Amino acid sequence: MARHDQDKSNMIVELERCMVPASSEERDLLEKIRALTFYQVPRAPQDRLADIQMHPQRCHDNAAQWAKADASNGSRLVSGWWRRGDIFLFHSVVLTQSRLVCVTPHAYPSPLEFAPDPEIEWLDIRGVRSPRRRGQKIPYLVRAHPEDFITAAREARQALLDGADPHDIILPIGSF
Asked: How far apart are the first and last CA of the chain?
């Protein structure tokens, strides 16, 4: 599959994940997330991430792998929320030497706004690492204006299906 087609397929999957219906649980979690402290978190250099085989859109695995590979045992995975406008994406970074750093490759290497969430824990459920917040599954994202975002995601998905270039798709959180 050509790179362009793979990008398009990946984006359609991500857009479909963004179109889950709004819920009262999402509204409640939104208020809890907004109360957290956000930090500017730098990204590790892209060439270093490539050297150690970190993968885009696999932040939880990347952070766990980085922490496990740290010979000094001074790094640990920290999960929380990446703020992108009015959208909060479930994300993991690494805390190393008292500094947070994002170890997931991304097209835009600028720092991200990230809030560690101390309520998130990783459990082993039937042999699979699973994140939970107060015992509940964690959503992929939390939206301040879910209906507006669902509409934008549907329109973007349809544009891709109609032949749009994935690099031309812009959502309320910026380039996807």
From this structure: 21
- Cα dist. 153→65, 84, 174 in Å? 31, 15, 12
Q: Distance between CA atoms of 175 and 92, rounded to whole angstroms?
A: 20
Could you tell me if 46 and 109 are in contact, meaning their C-beta atoms sit under 8 angstroms apart?
yes
Checking if the pLDDT of 163 tops 70, the result is: yes
Number of Cβ within 10 Å of residue 145's Cβ equals 14
Number of separate domains in the chain? 1
Burial of 48 (0-12, 13-18, 19+ CB in 10 A): exposed
In this prediction, residue 175 has a pLDDT band, given cuts at 50, 70 and 90, of very low
Q: Token pair of 45, please?
A: 């250099």
- CA–CA dist 11, 5 (Å, integer): 10
**pLDDT tens for each residue of 36-45:** 999 999 999 8
Say yes or no to pLDDT of 173 above 70: no
The residue among 168 and 26 whose pLDDT is bigger is 26
Residue 66 structural domain: 3-175
Instruction: State how far Cα 151 lies from the chain centre.
Output: 20
